[in-house]
Amino acid sequence: MNQTLRINGERLWSRLEEIGQIGATAGGGCNRQALTDEDRDGRALFARWCEAAGCTLRTDAIGNVFARREGTEPNLPPVITGSHLDTQPSGGKYDGIYGVLAGLEVIESLNEAGIRTRHPLEVVVWTNEEGCRFDTAMMGSAVWSGVMPIEDAYALTDRDGASVRDELLRTGQLGSEPATASPIHAAFELHIEQGPVLEAEALSIGVVTGVQHMSRHRVIYYGQEAHAGPTPMTLRKDPMMALGQCLPRLYTMAEEHGADSRITFGFVHASPGSSNTVPGKLEFTVDIRHPEASHYQAMLTSYEEIIQDAAKQFGLDMEFECFWEAPGVTFDTDCVAAVQKAVDTLGYSHRRMVSGAGHDACNVAKVAPTSMIFIPCKDGLSHNEKEAVIAADVTAGANILLNAMATRAEVVA
Ligand SMILES: [Zn+2]
User: Fold this and answer.
1) 51 labelled as ligand-binding?
2) Residues 33-49: pLDDT tens digits?
3) Distance from the alpha carbon of residue 132 to the mean position of ligand 1, in angstroms
4) Is 249 annotated as a binding-site member?
5) Domain's final residue, options 301, 326, 351
6) For residue range 367-410, what is the model confidence (pLDDT) as tens digits?
7) 371-385 burial string, b = 16+ CB within 10 Å, else e?
8) Does 191 show up as a binding residue in the annotation?
9) CB 191 within 8 A of CB 357
10) pLDDT band for position 2 (50/70/90)?
């Protein structure tokens, strides 16, 4: 393919604005939580656009929507792209939505250019990516890729007791297709970065090569409650002293694993929580992340040594557990290469990077060759009504998606 294809940036921008009116919040964001009336209305608008673009639509049993543009060889597995249309309660207008509407824009641009591909193309709307109303993120893609049994997903309930299955039925999103992956030739997800790196480096495109390894841990130190006055420092069993020793060692340890390592202490709770009592119990959480498996494993080993050391030194009993872990994802070499080729051809500023957050693409990657494309967002903000993007970046990202998909779907001469 010698031709460089381009999408229509104005159309894509105006559609992002139009769908953003559904569930619009006073602060300029969006509240379109999964399987609400607003989510249904957003999907309906998307479906109308797809039908006007000549796509055929189907919905599976967990409400994932597939809009298909036929290939010249309909029996070949499709090249897919997709993301989500649901939002956080006070979410932005671009998280997820951008990836879906850019997929439609790819199809419309190929239609207008009269270009056919050997492989069919499909744009997917994954159900309940956000996991805020129903407490499992990336639910639709998890069911489809076999990570989560559909009955478990159906049984999830919101705060009012409405189940996923009830709400799929009520909003007309319970489709007849089985929610299981069929063969996929290649998959791409275009998304806003949701972090500050691209903006800080003034780059337009992130060529995403994978997703970080990540896990969350809970540590409890048991000491002895004692009066803050009469008890000499040397005669205390004070779990806070152990934490005080751990923190600098853990920060230093993370630093030794390079700029890509992350360690976060998001929760610390001392009991009984009285200012003049030595705490008898101290609980805290540790979130550990690294893109490279060898570093990540080494960080976990060091973390355990450091927290156990401190307990020993201060004579404390302790408990610790890993309560959540998501293994990292390495994206498909050919898909990453297709994105890199598009970036090189179009000449956008870019860098290779690893995603710090989970996405539907992590689930898709379990069953299909997959990769992702990022564009910057203002101040790295997301899950926030103030989420903002620049029109030129929106166009750039969709141009990359178009060319990467065209490469993998094989343009017919
Ligand atoms: Zn998202």
Assistant:
1) no
2) 999 999 999 999 999 99
3) 12
4) no
5) 326
6) 999 999 999 999 999 999 999 999 999 999 999 999 999 999 99
7) bbbbbbbbebbbbbb
8) yes
9) no
10) very low
